[in-house]
Amino acid sequence: MNSTLPALLFLVPFLSALLCGALGGYLRGAARWIALGALAATAALSFAGAALAAAGERLVTHMGGWAPPLGIEWRLDALSAFVAAFVAATALIVHGALGDVRRRELGEREPGFNTCALLLVSGLMGMIASADLFNLFVHLEVASLSAYALVASGGRGAPRAAVRYLVIGSLGASLYLLGVGHVYAATGTLNMDDAAARIAAGADPRLTILALAFMISGLAIKMGLFPLHGWMPGAYARAPLSAAALMAPLVTKVSAYALIRILFWVYGPAGLGRAPIVADLLCVTGAVALIAGALLAAREADLRRLLAYSSVSQMGLVVLGIGLANAAALTGAILHLANDALMKATLFVGAAELAHRFGVREVGDLARVRARAPWTAAAMAVAAFSLVGLPPLCGFFGKWYVLMGALESGRPGMAFAIVAGSLASAFYAFRIVERLYFARSGEACPEREGPAGLVAACALLGGGVAALGLGSDRVVALLVRAAIPGGV
Amino acid sequence: MIDYLFARGPYLPYAALVMLGLYLVLTHQNLFKTIVGLSLAQSGIILFFVLLAVRDGATVPILAEGDDRPLNNPLPHALMLTAIVVAVSTLGVALAILRRLQEEEGSIVERRRPEEEP
């Protein structure tokens, strides 16, 4: 069905970002409300898109009325609608929750920060809705450039972390662009469906496989796949609290979505079948990342660095699911994108509140806030349990589906890696829980948790972790199952 | 060998630029030189796309009356206009961050000691 909705998902935050930047210097209050309103509108649009996608609709926008393959196509099918819905909802809740933190952290730089945050969301939405390989690159860069700026707006050490992020991230984007160039050289098209048809019809495999290698390496950098995760801990620990809470749940997930889109929609089983090593390599890298990320997290003292390494581990599970490439594993990988977004949003919002209110930034200091922040502690504990994969929290179901996929495709080694990764996750996740609930507290902080809106948002996100777990069979039936490509 | 070089020769500068850029990024501690390397690598990729557009004996893609020579493919050029804008923006953001780094720490050299990790 032709609709402007897919393009609006990008245009609403993008145009609001320009408005916010232009007005910010004069009407700071108005700019603040514009930012929040734009995110709310984006979330509403993406939910409308998800409802239509669940009803079996497939929304497409043809820019300027030019039909593909000549024109640039935007598309919202079950997969992109699902990803857009959780990305927009998470962005809205996180951005809305952290208003006070942002005001104190950034002062008069807040309008610029809000502009960058909106640009980040618009870039992510563009990546999700784009059905054109080059357009995907442009949106990847829109999102990345605003992410670099968001990191750099932090305090001490932030510029250094931002430069590192920028250099590694730009290399990733350049590799992706080089891959797009090779696809274009092989097929003469950039539209995903058109390229898929020509690759299936037997475009020069030397070029298409090289292109795939370039694109996978580029996106692997962007999604922080071990061992290409070097930018992530520094960026998330040094960014302003409000920026880390916005970026950490979303940026890596959307890059993983792009990888799924390219592997299964552009290349498809036929294209991947010509290079079986690609799937094997993804499986092995994912399994290594799953375990190594958890072990790296276990020895980290800084809460936000620990959470960054935890993302490395969770993205490993997603890549493992992608590499297994059967319906169950892919269901797990797609579902786990939403799971990890929600878990990381809970933990980063909680971490932002504790640092903002109590000045607590280290895992070891969490014991001091237990009695003062019961709701925040509960929400963070729920998310931590979910990271390990305790049923019925959402993290369990992502792992469960990928595990089923591994057994289905007869790879007990991979299944073993998932179990080992879960055990390794227990080291860092239970450390958070232990500090929050069981450790001797020493001197407690004088204040109580707050502000109320922030605590409510943290509790809401923690509740979401439980709700997405309890309702995961319905989410899978409604959206994720329809998002599995045919022939897998 | 000669034939191979003649056919692939134009791609050599592309490979050289990307490799030179990567070499600078990987080996230099001065972050300004790292950014220069990044820029070189991006220029190399732009050159790659421009080379894709070339056809034997073709001319610039501007339609003219009575001229039926084959035309080069204009699409990669259009794509690279966008990629150049992206590369320039990246460079701008990078330089702005480097300036803040210089103001804050008085140096733009990457440190290798673990206790100074960001």
Comma- or semicolon-separated keywords:
heterodimer; A: 488 residues; mainly alpha; 19 helices; 2% strand; globular; B: 118 residues; elongated
Q: What does this protein look like?
A:
The complex is a heterodimer of chains A (488) and B (118). Chain A has a domain at 296-488. The relative contact order of chain A is 0.10. In chain A, α14 (327-358) runs antiparallel to α15 (374-388). Chain A has helices spanning 5-23, 28-54, 78-97, 99-106, 110-129, 133-152, 158-187, 192-200, 205-222, 232-238, 241-273, 276-298, 303-324, 327-358, 374-388, 394-408, 412-437, 452-470, 472-483, and strands spanning 59-62, 73-76. Chain A is globular and about 70 Å long. By secondary structure, chain A is mostly helical. Chain B is mainly α and 118 residues long. Chain B has a domain at 30-60 and 74-111. In chain B, α2 (11-27) runs antiparallel to α3 (31-52). The termini of chain B are far apart. The A-B interface holds A 134, 137-138, 141, 145, 148-149, 152, 156-164, 166-167, 170-171, 173-174, 177-178, 181, 184-185, 190, 234, 237-238 and B 18, 22, 25, 31, 34-35, 38, 41-42, 45, 48-49, 52, 76, 79, 82-83, 86, 89-90, 93-94, 96-98, 100-101, 104-105, 110, 117-118.
In short:
The complex is a heterodimer of chains A (488) and B (118). With 488 residues, chain A is mainly α. Chain A has 19 helices and 2 strands.
Cα(first) to Cα(last) distance of chain B is 49 Å
Query: By helix and strand content of chain B, what is the structural category?
Result: mainly alpha
Number of strands of chain A: 2
Parts with pLDDT < 50 across at least 5 consecutive residues of chain A: none
Number of E strands of chain B: 0
Q: How would you state the average pLDDT of chain A, rounded?
A: 89
Name the structural class of chain A.
Answer: mainly alpha
Strand order of the largest sheet of chain A: 1-2
Indicate the topology.
The complex is a heterodimer of chains A (488) and B (118).
Chain A: H1 5-23, H2 28-54, E1 59-62, E2 73-76, H3 78-97, H4 99-106, H5 110-129, H6 133-152, H7 158-187, H8 192-200, H9 205-222, H10 232-238, H11 241-273, H12 276-298, H13 303-324, H14 327-358, H15 374-388, H16 394-408, H17 412-437, H18 452-470, H19 472-483
Antiparallel strand pairs in A: 1-2
Chain B: H1 2-8, H2 11-27, H3 31-52, H4 75-105
